Each structure stands twice: as C-alpha cells, then as structure tokens.
Amino acid sequence: MKKIVIVLAMIGAAQLAHAQKYMTRTGKVSFFSATKVENIEAFNNESATVLDSKSGDLVFQIPVKSFKFEKALMQEHFNENYMESDKFPKSEFKGKIDNINAVNFSKDGTYPVTVSGNMTIHGVTKKVQTKGTVKVAGKSITLNSQFNVRPADYGISIPSVAASKIASSIQVTVASTLKAI
C-alpha cells in the first residue's frame, strides 16, 4: 500500500512539473506602415519569447537590428535615424495573458486571449493591452496578435521630410511558435 501511495505521489508531482513553460528564440514579429506615398514592411524572426502557462507571464525580447527590409536604405534609416539601435538594441514586452485559464494547454484548439503589460520601444515604456490568440497544437503553441503602435508615443521622431512616407500608426503582427521546455 505504501508503495502505491509513493508511486501515485510521484505521478502527481511529474504532472505538476509537466511543461508549464514554452519558449522560442525564433519568434516572428513584423510591422507595416502604409501611406499614400509609400508602404514600408519589415520582418524579424529572432524574437525570444517565453510563456508560463500556469501564471500567464509572457516576455518578448526583440533585437531591433534584426528587422529586415526590402530596401537596404530603409533598414539603415530605421536603425540609425529612427530606432537608434546602437543606443536601444532591443524592444521588449513584459506582461501576462490576463485570461490564461481560458486556454486548455492539453487540448488542441485556438483560444482568444487578452494580453496586458509593459512595452518598451526606443527606451520608452508604456502600458499596453491587446487581443490575440493562443493556438495549441500538440506540444507547441502559437501566439498571434495584431495591434498598432504610434512611434510618437515612444519618443521616435519622424523628420518632416519623411513624415509623408511613414504612418503615424504602425501595424505590428506577432506570430510566434513556442515549444515546451
């Protein structure tokens, strides 16, 4: 009897320790700026992302210089003139999935979520809240969200000569697939 209790306790402990954290170093984040003069799009596949499925704690760290543009000159202006990537090498989100209990990590499906926390871009931190989804597929999950960021809110000044080419509100898309760790 004692052995059965010990085995059951070990199984219970193993289930508690079962993959509560998910991670990737290849998370996908992109942005799109649309104006009448020009559209600008950039992609980054180097976002480090960690999610704790128990608490809902969520962290994204994005190396700014890893954004890739169609035109090299756009990338150069983005890093040197606007984002000042040498001074501010990463952007970051630290927060949580507010309704983490709505996600069943043991059942494949797509679950709507609300995420809130602090986003730091260009050295400026702002509280944000957005909607998204958590897609569970086997042992991996995909975080998806789309929201807008205003460069002016993060101290990013656009010179008047470029103002007609850069939107005042930029659409950001997150589509990151994480694996259990």
SSE topology sketch:
Layout: H1 2-17, E1 21-34, E2 39-52, E3 57-63, E4 68-69, H2 72-82, E5 90-97, E6 109-121, E7 124-137, E8 140-149, E9 170-180
Antiparallel strand pairs: 1-2, 1-9, 2-3, 2-4, 3-5, 5-6, 6-7, 7-8, 8-9
Structure write-up:
The chain has 181 residues and is mainly beta. It has one domain: Lipocalin, CATH 2.40.128.110. 15% of the residues lie in helices and 51% in strands. It has helices at residues 2-17, 72-82; strands at residues 21-34, 39-52, 57-63, 68-69, 90-97, 109-121, 124-137, 140-149, 170-180. A hairpin with a 4-residue loop joins strand 2 and strand 3.
Give me the Rg, rounded. 20 Å
The percentage helix is: 10-25%
Number of domains: 1
CATH fold label: Lipocalin
Order of helices and strands: HEEEEHEEEEE
Q: Name the CATH homologous superfamily.
A: Lipid/polyisoprenoid-binding, YceI-like
Largest sheet report: 8 strands, antiparallel, barrel
Output the strand order for the largest sheet: 1-2-3-5-6-7-8-9
Q: Could you report the average pLDDT, rounded to the nearest whole number?
A: 91
Count of runs of 4 or more consecutive helical residues: 2
* CATH first level: Mainly Beta
Structural class: mainly beta
- From the N-terminal CA to the C-terminal CA, the straight-line distance is 34 Å
Q: Which regions have little confidence, pLDDT < 50, spanning 5+ residues?
A: 7-17
* CATH architecture descriptor: Beta Barrel
Give the overall shape: elongated
How many strand elements? 9
Portion in beta strands: over 45%
